[in-house]
Amino acid sequence: MSAKEEFKQITGADDKTAEYFLEAAKGDLQSALSTFFEGSASSGNAAQPVSSHTAPPPKQSRIKTFSDFNNDDDEEEDDQKMYAGGEKSGIAVKGPKKDPQNVIKDILEQAAKGGVKEEPEKKPRYFSGAGQRLGSDSVPSEVIQPPQTRAESEPVSRTLTFWQDGFSVEDGPLLKYDDPQNQELLNAIKSGRAPTSLLNVANNQPVEVKVAHRMQEKYVPPPKKPMAAFTGAGNRLGSIVSSAPSVPGAFPNQTTQSASKPQPPTVEVDASQPVTSIQVRLGDGKRLVAKFNQTHTVGDLRAFVRASTSDPRDFVLQTSMPTTIIHDDKQTLKDAQLLNAVIIQRYV
Questions:
Q1: Within 10 Å of residue 82's Cβ, how many Cβ atoms?
Q2: Helix (H, G, I), strand (E, B), or coil: what is residue 154?
Q3: Do residue 217 and residue 325 come from a single domain?
């Protein structure tokens, strides 16, 4: 059945009306139906055979949980359902899904208004004051102050940039809009609950997210940081030998020191094969971005991470969103769905 005939069957419109709406929607049946129903609803004409049913919004609590956000998504999806037919019978027509661009628009509007409304500071339910250690005749009493973490005392700032083909955080890789995982990240940012792995912060650490609107430009990778100048020690050749006796072992051998430093890891990449970039966040907080062929295995990635650090502890590799531990070293990066992914090293 052609799009024109299907449009006429659903809406009851004539040929001229069907051709008009399909031509305006460039042949997209769903868009044409949505435009037709929206125009019918706004005109308020009782003779139109189309009606849209929406339930009144329930009274909302002032405190929202993650389940509330899930319910909001369900309600938005229900609002997309419309009905065509007579007064007592009809068929349900589901409109197009909400465009991810609408989420970006909401985030930009929140940033223009000053961001998400801050929640009142919650007082800890446990004792957080100072204590006193009792002494004795020989040991005086001592006041024990509560520990304060660096994350609690020092808020950080992160820049979220929207590009034409995706978005990025700070100097991180490009995250595509059409990736379902990245759409979940956008929804979390919109609600003010972005994952700590995305922003590279500690739990409960205050973060100020700055939004940059560059959607007229395509993503441009940040320039590589210049190599640090040499800051080690050196030997002057041909200097005059001092008459003072030398102290054995006073200066370590420079060759031994340089040999003990770990060499930066390298990955052999075949330029004629498909290539992907993977960002690795090491357990010590450092970030690495390396290029692999899509046929490289998880074991190759694990060996690269092992060579990037001198810490001998065992570790696991996991994805950032959702958090999933990667076990099978024989899988290729493509089969493991790790192309352009963010991998986190976690010590066990």
A1: 23
A2: coil
A3: no
pLDDT tens, 103-122?
777 777 776 666 555 555 55
Torsion of CA 23, 27, 33, 38, to 10 degrees: -50
Shared domain for 317 and 338, answered yes or no, is: yes
Q: How many residues does the chain have?
A: 348
- On whether the CB atoms of residues 281 and 344 are closer than 8 A, the answer is yes
The answer to whether position 108 is within a domain reads yes
Tally of domains within the chain: 3
Q: Omega of the bond prior to 322 within 30 degrees of 0, cis?
A: yes
Kindly report, residue by residue over 243-253, the tens digit of the pLDDT. 445 555 555 55
What is the helix (H) or strand (E) element at residue 280, kind and residue range? strand 275-281
CA–CA separation, 290 vs 339, rounded Å?
12
Q: What residue type is 107 in one-letter code?
A: I
The one-letter amino acid at 318: Q
Structure tokens at 78: 């229900």
336: CATH: 3.10.20.90
- pLDDT tens digits for range 156-193: 888 888 888 898 888 888 888 888 888 888 888 877 77
Is residue 292 a contact partner of residue 300, using CB atoms and an 8 Å limit?
A: yes
Within-domain flag for 305: yes
- 18 φ, ψ (degrees, to nearest 5): -60, -45
Give the residue from 177, 180, 158, 153 showing the smallest Cα distance to 169.
Answer: 158
Terminal-residue alpha carbon distance, the chain: 59
| Token output for 289 | 């971005």
How far is 97 from 103, CA to CA, in rounded Å?
A: 12
